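Hey, weird one. I pasted the Integrase catalytic domain-containing protein sequence into the form twice and got a warning about non-standard characters only the second time. First submission, copied straight from the form history:
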Amino acid sequence: MMGPVYVHSGKSATKVKAYVAIFICFSVKACHLELVSDLSTSAFLGAFKRFISRRGVCAKIYSDNGTNFVGAKRELKKLLFDYEKGHSITDLATREGVEWHMIPPGSPHFGGLWESAVKTAKYHFQRMMRSTTLTIEEMTTLLCQIEACLNSRPLTYLSNDITEFSPLTPAHFLVGGPLHVPDETNFKTEIDKYQKKWIQVQRYTNQFWRLWSKSYLTSLQQRTKWKEDGINARIGTIVMIEEPNLHPTQWKLGRIEEVHPGKDGRVRVATVRLANNSMVKRTVTKLCPLPIQKSDEEIDDLGSPGENVQDSQL
């Protein structure tokens, strides 16, 4: 649970607290964001029902041992289970094909995966929103577009064809293909007050995309103190290119066609072929190999110890 965030009804300027339920897939790191009104049991049940209605029933569910979940578990027993028969939340979940696990109390490091997602989303969300308050509909729309941004990050390439530049993303496991946020960068100059609020939501989406995509690429390009020679950039490596002003959910991918080593033999510049067959020259500090492209025997081609899909930051 991330929050609080502040929303209002639209008819009243009074702002109220709300929260965001974050669901993370342990296999492909796909994200699902749900706006909930509070930390009560009924709000949690509503968010969970909306999640499984759109994404399907999970085989296993892991959650922290916060007081809100412990209280929800206690209330769920009263609401959904027959005490006389001694049924528990685990019994019902098992009967429905779901195993529910809770991490030990006072051990947030056991839930590092979702804690990382909360940290990433909350950090950029707070920087972006500051004191702004949206309506419930506007906030829900914004969260859905943020979800599309998070699920658009490339995991690896789809094909070994050298002419194919379509990456595999978490969205492929959700909807069978990439997600796209409508490009609304050319805003109208004359708009009514109702359209103005929705354009503001799109601006927030673009702002979140700029902040998060830059942070995500930086996390894949971390370079620690060198103690031995890394492996140079190699021809044929598929890379993401750090490029400003890209539209939300759009990533610039290319394949290294030529390397330009210096006098010491180290590659610091490479020529990259883009999807439209154009060639661009970039420094290796602007190139990032896809997260799971490295093998166990190799450090990544750009000289930094890259991450695999299990360790990549959301």
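That's the output from the first submission. The warning seems to come from a hidden character in my clipboard, not from the data itself. Helices lie at 41-55, 67-80, 89-95, 112-129, 136-150, 170-175, 193-220.
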